[in-house]
User: Fold these one by one.
Assistant:
Number 1:
Amino acid sequence: MEKLIITAALTGGIHGKEANAALPEQPDEIIRDALDCYNAGAALVHLHARDMEGKGVGDPVIFKTLNSGISSRCPVIIQNTTGGPGIPIEKRITSLDAGPESASLNMGSVVFFYRDREIPFYNLRSEIELFAREMLDRNIKPEMEVYNPSMFGEVQNLIDKGLLKKPFYINFVMGVGGMGGYPGTPENLVTMMNHLPQGSIFNVSGIGRCQLAMNTMAILTGGHARTGLEDNVFYHKGEPAAGNARLVERVARLARELGREVATPDEARVILGIKA
Ligand code: ZN
């Protein structure tokens, strides 16, 4: 099997320190966690920007601060989000202005549930195409976020329109607790794998309690693994994770125990078709 790319999703844009005080919100905290996660085995960090109050924002200045702060300290691949529920679409795209090597590309609409709130997250086909075209023009590798099997129709649409380069990099976002989420079970993960278009490689995120099982399944099935406090704030049931790096360390340790080597950032660039 190919070496394992570990992604650390450091902060996200929905829950903040109220969910886990170790979740980084401000640029200095996010930069520190990126370095810790790189040292723990992460080849790629997935980033969101937050304002001074910790609220998710689409702010190219903050993204530039994060990107330059991280790239001056370590060679980890930087992936800026183009998501962020509640952030206007024209702001979301500005994360590309910071010039990351990769960016997330959400492949459909979902509604997140968080603490009795319904948080709609719209991604129309026209918007997905616009994001994909910008990434293609700027040579930024898209990671397509697929939340359920129906979103593979949007992956196919981008392929048909020539908006993607191989290898197609698809992240299965399993276990979103809301409308459009797909439970993080072994059967569902295999179903997602069966929908992969030719020429794809896949990454697996598990939201909340299914994170560890989904990461482990990814190691065993030849996928790549995304962990981090954006997706899950616990280390064990009822025990908050002490930091992003603790989650990365565990995935790296599991991979080695299961006979799968962990990719360095440069090895991950080769796998993903990113020019260093
Ligand atoms: Zn994210």
Number 2:
Amino acid sequence: MTDANQQGAAAPQQQAIETMQVEERRFPPTAAFAAQANAQPGIYARDFDELWATEAGRIDWFEPWTTLYEWEPPHAKWYLGGTLNVCFNCVDRHVEAGRGEKIAFHWEGEPADELVPISYVDLQRRVVVFANALRKLGVKKGTAVAIYMGMVPELPVAMLACTRLGAPHTVVFGGFSADALSDRLVDMGCEVLITQDEARRRGTTVGLKVIVDEALEAAPGVRAVVVAQRTHGPVAMTPGRDVTWDAACAGLSDDPASCPCEPMDAEDLLFLMYTSGTTAKPKGIVHTTGGYLVGAATTHHYVFDHKPETDVYWCAADIGWITGHSYIVYGPLANGATSVLYEGTPDFPDRDRWWEIVERYGVTILYTAPTAIRSHMKWGAEHAAKHDLSSLRLLGSVGEPINPEAWIWYREHIGGGRCPIVDTWWQTETGMILITPLPGLTTTKPGSATKPFPGVDVAVLDEAGEEVGPGGGGYLVLRRPWPGITRGIFGDPERFRDVYWSRFPGLYFAGDGARIDEDGDYWLLGRVDDVMNVAGHRLSTIEIESALVSHPLVAEAAVAARADALTGQAIVAFVTLRGTAEGSLAMMEELRNHVAHHISPIAKPANIVFTPELPKTRSGKIMRRLLRDVAENRPLGDTTTLADPAVVGELQERAAGENAGEE
Ligand code: WT7
């Protein structure tokens, strides 16, 4: 970031969110990368229909589709008339093509001596046996199945077995509570639940089956529970309802002919992924079969420059989120990838665990989230330096805007300065990456997700629905459908219209702010609900946070606004320092001046609260809504989705202390 103040003054009038951050570093692709890249010049000029018709050829269809898409906002349908099976595309066809011995997953347990290579033929056998077990439990096309597991091999096996039978699934992240689980079971009408006895976590175990038992008291529709034995710990089994994975599979065939892949309509329900909304009731985001699979596979191929013969790909997300569905399971397997699947946390037993894994398998492509990158920054680069990371050739980021300094740190300390970084913007609802660099083509800028994926039509609008010119900030919308677009909120078409289609009629409103710069590159500004209004200026959180993170002693920062008699709202920053640095009044002044200098005096935080941890959701996003409550000294709203509820209590105490000191 450089001299930003002038830019603020020069920004256009017409904008819904003011943007002030300027980032001048540029990273053009190398000639060597460009020459071998999957994305070649010309891809952006491809005709929309040609693109999605051709890319559909990545998938094997039982019956060819006849109509590419139908679009009557908010309803999209893709590949009408086509039939296919997801499990066939992800597993069987690779075995049939003679690639059965290729590794699908290098599974690694949290205990570092548990390393299990799973080839495509192994995966097929496991899936077939388990699909036969599900069939015996009465699961057939259309039966709703829930999966509540940690990152064990049985998790993708269970998902694929469901898709083989045509049974829609919902995977509930293994960190969710009994209430969150039962809400989802009831909403989807699940009849069968697949879980495990206990999950491994940081050297100890966490009971999942006990949570299931509690959840099922409120979800009487679940008639059968399959329990994989990860730890063989003692768990209660309810006779007539619960069965272990092994017992359910005993004596069943692993011959693919014993359990053929069910032909599914392109628009049949594939899965629901629940995502939290502004009300307590989670939204069951609907994804269907054909468009979703084409979208996931196509973006995985181009965005990650994936070469099935040589790459070792690792998406370090949890399968319980959409990232894991699209870019651990369905996209990579459809493309015949060899992936890493890791059960544990990045810092167990030590903070170099990830880098040990990269070295062990020769990982070439790594996809993770800014929150993880900032944790590694906080811990220090020495952990990565202990390992040979020279196999890496491409890095990816998803989940939040990435602060430019975190981007640079990732590039230098993990990518050795040689790997392109793809900062990929998308959502549970979009199913697939929509704004992203294409490696080999795009000149990247730290903090920018750069360009819409080919065929994706994005715009940034002001309050009145007019396009904001270059440099201005506003609301991100999509004007044209894409194959992976959600088909709705399960059972609630009105809410679907309300949430996504009512702000700008006929357009999909993502809920995010964004800015387009002079080169046509997109900068995501965070959720519009988080925008602050300071002395009449509408400011996004991310720019101020990134200015703070650009200070050499800051690892993470989050800002929120509190009411202020003079300016309407005043900015409160919550800052985590790197390593052993300590917060002080002098440090606070230094950081306030740093923000004033790097962005604008308008953006100067009124107060800074130093904290060892920020409140985050279980998927790693900073919860600014709670920080607003803390900043306002209000009772906290819903804290059930927090990863670590203790963090915010401590923060309240610190904030109270600081405010007292200020008065
Ligand atoms: C929201 C969607 C999509 C997989 C993970 C999250 C934010 C996501 C980026 C990015 C800036 C990003 C947006 C979006 N987001 N990726 N590269 N740059 N913001 O899925 O939980 O549905 O969250 O995450 O705010 O709307 P999700």
